[in-house]
Predict the structure of Nucleotidyltransferase-like domain-containing protein.
Amino acid sequence: MPSIDAAAQTVFADLNQRCADAEFDRDFPENGKFIRRTIKAREYWYYQGYDAATGTKSNRYVGTVADSETTRRVEAHDRQRVDYRTRIDAVRMLRSAGFPTADALTGRVVERLAQAGFFRLRGVLVGTVAFQTYPGLVGERPMRALRTGDIDLAQDYGISVAIGESMPPVHEELQAVDASFRPVPNLSRPDRTSAFANANGFRVEFLVSNRGSDDLTGALVPMPALGGVSAQPLRYLDFLIRDPVRSTLLHAGGISVTVPAPERYAVHKLIVANERTEREKQAKDLTQASFLIAALARNQPVALAASWVEAWSRGPSWRRHLETGVARLDETGRIAITQAVCTHGEMLGYEPTQVGIPASPA
């Protein structure tokens, strides 16, 4: 795997910050103000806006006061002036350096949903499109780009209920990008949909954690914050989208997105690969896991080890999937995860053999 040189990493880090700031400025015009609200002993930022054209006032959820990045943007809001042209130049430079970029349709759809508030409302981009944003976060890039014909998006159900706000209708937002987008029918609940597809079969799907009985896995869950769509429950998704991070999808001037922490993505792929019935998708999962595990073992080994230990602690079925997933990795991936967990066991308070790892790399 080619390492990313220091100059390219610096460009990505700067772009990542500026894209996030640009999104924040766009969402919250200067004629409004930010206020704090305390709900159940936690403090949250809300924005009180004013539409001069209609004379209407609005209240919009911003984020938690405890989130230092959100608070920093609130405090610096009036000072932010982002140059879109320089961001386009940065994206072009990163593309030349071998960073993965989004295809045109993927970029336009993600950008439209970002503008509609999906990420502000604590939605998370998952799947291969999220994977494309990781090189700048882990310091290495895959040998070849992985393309996909779909976009997977997730949100925690509790957040969707509690946030008290909704995106505009998702179907309308997608049709503004491509008029051929249509809801994908759900046989058990014709009145609900969790996915949309265009005339070429390009698919946008919404997911939610399945924390109940496996019997409910096929039952779509209405998501109050997601503009009239429901979401497909998936096991293990709560692990994936816990404590997500900011990254940038390389399209146009860059799109600020929220994605799973790369160490969680890697461990999650080890688990879900075992539930795949299609060999091609299983191989794709393991390829992504192996790349991230090797990169993280070199650059962020403590985070990788901690995610492995957390997953291992979740019970017997998780352990079986982790053991099988590691056995299916290539040699580089197996050695990397073993070394990371063995090396940092004392720091994290466990013996490697207690969490399914032999005492020395195999």
